[in-house]
C-alpha cells in the first residue's frame, strides 16, 4: 500500500450531498443510473454516473445522503458528463454506497 501525506488527503474534496434526481442510464456500457446530488450552497448541484443498480432502486436513492469527490475533473461517460465521483465499496452483491451514519449539512467536508 502506498502511503500519502496529510496534504495529499486534504487535497481530495470529499463532501456529503443529497441525491435530488435519479434517471436510468440505458446508454451506459455497464448498468448505471444518472444521479444529481445537492452539495450545498458553496458547491451546488453536481451530476454523476453511478454503477449501483444491483443493490439500489432509483426510488430508494431519492433523498439519500452520499459522500462524493467533487474536485476531480469532469469525465465523459458515453453521452453524459459526470461532474463528481460518488463513493462506495465493492462487495459480492454490488457496490455499497459510502453514506454518513447520521444526517449532516449538504457540503460538509469529510474530516
What does this structure look like?
The protein has a single domain (10-97), classed as OB fold (Dihydrolipoamide Acetyltransferase, E2P) (Beta Barrel), CATH 2.40.50. It is 8% helix and 40% strand. It has helices at residues 6-10, 58-61, and strands at residues 14-24, 33-38, 45-50, 65-69, 75-77, 80-82, 85-86, 88-91, 94-97. The two termini are 21 Å apart. The mean pLDDT is 97.
Quick take:
The chain has 111 residues and is mainly beta. It is 8% helix and 40% strand.
Principal-axis shape: globular
CATH topology: OB fold (Dihydrolipoamide Acetyltransferase, E2P)
Series of H and E elements: HEEEHEEEEEE
Please give the alpha-carbon distance between the first and last residues. Answer: 21 Å
